[in-house]
Amino acid sequence: MLEEVVATRYVTPLREGGSLPGIVEADDLGTYVMKFTGAGQGRKTLVAEVICGLLARRLGLRVPELVAMELDPVIGLGEPDQEVQELLKASGGLNLGMDYLPGSIGFDPLAYEVGSAEAGRVVWFDALVNNVDRSWRNPNMLVWHGDPWLIDHGATMIWHHNWPGAEASAAKPYDASDHVLASFRPDVAAAAAELAPQVTEELLTEVAAQVPDAWLVDEPGFVTTDELRRAYVRPLLARAAGVHERITLGKRTERPASRAPGWLTEPARPWPHTAGEKNEDGSAR
Ligand SMILES: Nc1ncnc2c1ncn2[C@@H]1O[C@H](COP(=O)(O)OP(=O)(O)OP(=O)(O)O)[C@@H](O)[C@H]1O
Ligand SMILES: [Mg+2]
């Protein structure tokens, strides 16, 4: 099971997230981004976060550490926003915590470079778990201390929404033409050669064992939570073997020129500026 901490203070909601995640402090003195069981997306989103987030970490990809967070909704009583109040009230018990990366900024494919080996590993991993949520519109990657980090694996493994069709669904190709790293010439063949042999039944079983029982109980068609855990292992194991041959990268291979603003790329002018100096267009500074 995931390490368990207790939420001690609700700090602030993260409005960028569709599921209204919040920044929450815990009794281990850590600060986490908390994803709530009471959110409209449902607890399967949290199962996907754990299985895919941990799997990526085991494969050496950068994903912030994950914990299970015990929430007593009473900690949100002072929260003025009714939507947040209701979310907290509906989420008593275990929720998901992801280590908060302070000072991180959203990944912009036009302002950052990613090597083709790393891009290949991320695209291959997203193909394995069928992540439909790492597009240039919504990258779900952060840059922290100069490195890209992967977040938000809630919209993966579409097959867990329809178990009877899971095997057929897991055999399907992966369209990466909208992937945020598609233009970095991802070397998916090299990534597959490196990563696919590591995705063993043992590794997947160990990762599935980390999901709290509370998010797995009473799944229609399954008698025990361990039976459901095994159902997560099978499609991923089957997919690891050959998914790289079924990845479409599309035509977006040329990267447009950087649109990083001038103040980021040009050397700074000495300060203070001399009075009367003119900008290049003749306007006063
Ligand atoms: N570990 C983290 N450290 C710092 N900021 C984070 C972290 N995780 C998420 N965020 C911030 O919160 C935002 C929302 O997070 P996330 O994408 O996981 O939520 P979501 O509700 O699943 O979002 P959506 O479904 O709208 O993509 C991110 O875009 C990012 O700005
Ligand atoms: Mg997101």
From TrEMBL:
Domain HipA-like kinase: 14-240
Originating organism: Streptomyces solincola
Any one Pfam family match given in the protein's UniProt record, by short name: HipA_2
Region described as Disordered: 250-285
Protein name according to UniProt: HipA-like kinase domain-containing protein
Biased composition regions of type Basic and acidic residues, renumbered to the chain: 275-285
